[in-house]
Amino acid sequence: MTNLNADLPLSRRRTALLGTSVAAILAGIMAVPAMAQDVGPPANQSDQTPAAPGTSLQANAVDQAESGASSDIIVTGSRIQSSGFSAPTPTTVIGVEQIQQNAQPNIFATIAQLPSLQGSTGVTTGTNSTSSGTQGLSSFSLRGLGTIRTLTLLDGQRVVGANVTGVPDISQFPQLLIERVDVVTGGASASYGSDAVGGVVNFITNKRFTGIKGNLQGGISTYGDDESVLAQLAVGKSFANDRLHVILSGEYSHEAGIGPGGFGEAGPAGRDWYTTATIVNRGIFNDGRPQFNYREHAQAYQYTLYGLINNGPLQGIAFDQNGQPFNFNYGSNGVPTRNNTGNVTGCYVGFCIGGDLSGNVGIGTTLKSRLDRYNGYGRIGFDLDADNEIYATVNISQVDTSNQPNPGAAQSSLTMRCDNPFLPGSVAAVCPASGTFGYGVSNAILPNIEVRPSRKQYRFVGGANGKVEAFGTDWRYDAYFEHGENITDINVRNMLVPRRYLRAIDATRDANGTIVCRDPVARANGCQPINIFGGATPSSAALAYLQPANGPFQHTRQTQNVASANLSGDPFSTWAGPVSIATGIEWRHEFYHVTADPYGNGNLTGATAYNQAYPADPLFDNGGGNWYAGNYRVGRGAYSVLESYLELNVPVLNDPDGLGTANINAAGRATNYSTSGTVYTWKVGGTWDTPLDGVRLRAVTSRDVRAPNLSELFAAPISVNVPNFTNPFNNTAVIISQNTIGNPALVPEAARNTELGIVLSRPQWLPGLSVSVDYYNIKIKDVISALAPQQLVNYCQQGVTQLCGAFFLDGVGGQGNFVNVQPFNLASIETEGLDIEASYQHRQPFGLKGSFTVRGLATHVMRYVTDLGLPGTVPIDTAGVNSGATPSWKWLTTQTYAQDEFSILLQQRWFPDGLFGGQYVVCQTSCPVSTANAPTIDTNTMKGAFYFDVGGTYNISKAISAYFKIDNLFDRDPTPSPQTNTGIDINPQLYDIVGRVFRAGVRFSF
């Protein structure tokens, strides 16, 4: 297809693209309500006219009979609470109707579908992790800037973090009482404080609910797994002449998740889309051909399912389940070099293509973590008078999850002795003169690692809100104190102790001919020999020695204390209208303390409390790091924040019948961090309701900040093993220990956020139509980031010498190899794009009763440029990279027909083809020299995806409704997201990895 805009200048191409995009969206008419679109009647009340996208909630009344709330609705995009005020910052609202229509067991999944939310984490992300502590943690990321740059609030109040990164877990919110979710897609630090660089997600609960309501739901995937159960119940009652209001809610949710497949390429429950897609390295940079190739069915040739001799004269001899040797089938027609390097002629660095894939471990990672959540919530409020209330809330919740990072505990750098009595005689007879050989094995004979995080949250809030009269005008106030605690326990089962493993596989015969561990010290401390030449199951005693019953353990306690007070009013008026102000002060203290088992942390002799559970072993390193993974460390840290702000709204034009109406909105905030001093944030914006029918213009620019969190400042060091790490100095694959540590010298990030928008709101010529288009640009400097281990070593190899002291890769047999990973203020990020919203509602279409509504959202990421700020590095644009979180477009569209008896929902989710990475230079022949900044590759295209969902509701009575939902109706498989090793080759941040899912349930309200 010819690109008609290809020859236009960049500015005109963007203008043409904008016009084409608006036309396309109106033609396709997208989904999800525009701002405040459905904070209104339920589906069977069809006389609702949509509000304009991104406009003030005051323009759209909440159904009072449903919510019992007052008619004054606070817009999250600003602290100003003035009737008719229009905030310049775009805000999208998801109402209770959309939440119900999506029928998800966790409200997080509904909100995360919004196109502006990119890179959010949940039960399908982090499943290959042992030590992160984020498994199953549901948290939002706006603009692809990460969960740490999105401020998530509950009723406008902060929530204690569920991880030392400071992000809360949406699974722990009282979800049945949520009546709307405000998503502010712009910087809001001046109004709401630190972390609101990407924006704010604010969950608003129903504070005046009376009656009884509940929800019972079940679900299952088309593959017979990921079973889910959801049970919710809420009751509300008023006492004392409607002055005392009591609300209680409880809910239980179980998502079984999707287990691992195992070894090779067989996916769980019949899923057949896994292909071990890998970006393989030729290890040649300047022969005119690409250094990297995209290949599927990659074979790691350092190890196999039951063992492979991987270097020396016997290289290529593998063992079957019965321990019988055979010649390994290398892919790519590879021929082993049979020297000490262990390379294979005709293959890539570390990989062949095809051949015997049975030892690959990638699909053995859990696809979706199990998630059980328990939530109890209560609120009691007392009206002092008609305008003032005091209240208290309590939220107690628990979230339990589990995942399997990978099967077994693969080893690729073992040295085995020829006199090992388990070695078949036919192999021992031809052993090299050295008496040893290199060996690798997937360790399929070992029980698989299982990580079990459990998070408990205790949150208490006491406050007051209302209005008082002073100086001839009404002043609104709200003040609260919050104390939150989150306690996270991570227990890991079946974790290998490498030092014991190395002794157990080194077997010999004693004087009586019995096979024993060769090391007498190990024998004296319980060592039992195991046979890794084949699939023989180790004895229970051997497994107890290798994988102690008390595995890695971490206990983290986080606390958050917040005292906040806010005041707003209209102290005076000008000729254009009342001038509004909002001001407030907030104090916050964050603290964490983590303890860990002595095997991972160290101090074996001093950890008297653990002596029985974790007995000392002379083989262990007293400094810790004795586990294969999950080497948690002891740590603690705290910081305090004191801040105050002032926000103004000044009307500057009030001529509805002439030039229109306009206002200027400005805010400033001073914030003092105990760790890094004082910083200032501000915003300036405005709106203009033009003389053109239904047309509003808006603009805002702001300075926003994010302070380093507890993890970045005071992270307890964590060590994890990384297999198949490429040593670029000799192009060999090694195993390393990745050590992650904090940096107390970090300073806050600073961002500049600019947005320009146009809104078409219910014009007279088509009153059911609303459209908004907003351009955004965000620039962040002093970005707190850390290089990935492979990046760090590659840059050193390419000449960035200041990084070369952070690693060691010359350990004999892989022992002692490490890469230290630490955050620094070293990077900058700039991203720009478009947000487009559209909605149209037609009452009584074709003479039918009810209404037909089409709605939608789209985000177009034009650029997402990250500059590491290191000498010798270049900025990388990841806009349109489908292996990440920022595709070039992301759409969400819905069509709904609703009447009194039933409603039908159709929903579409789409993003286009993209790239594997923005750094690659694509070529086939005559390639330039491949470098770390511009590596050459043979292909760089990653298919997008289209998902179609359908749902419906049938109203059995006014109080009872039955519903169903089918997600991914056509069971679209995920597109491979190639790795540089044999990890799981999918990107769950963009692609649906579950497949078709059926859900059904019943709601009731009395």
UniProtKB/TrEMBL annotation:
Main localization, broad class: membrane
Family that this chain belongs to: Belongs to the TonB-dependent receptor family.
Sequence ranges assigned to domain TonB-dependent receptor-like beta-barrel in this UniProt record: 553-969
Residue span(s) of domain TonB-dependent receptor plug: 86-200
Alphabetical keyword list: Cell outer membrane, Membrane, Signal, TonB box, Transmembrane, Transmembrane beta strand, Transport
Signal peptide from the UniProt entry: 1-36
Domain of life: Bacteria
Cellular localisation: Cell outer membrane
Gene from which this protein is expressed: btuB_4
Entry GO CC: cell outer membrane
Membrane topology: Multi-pass membrane protein
Protein name: Vitamin B12 transporter BtuB
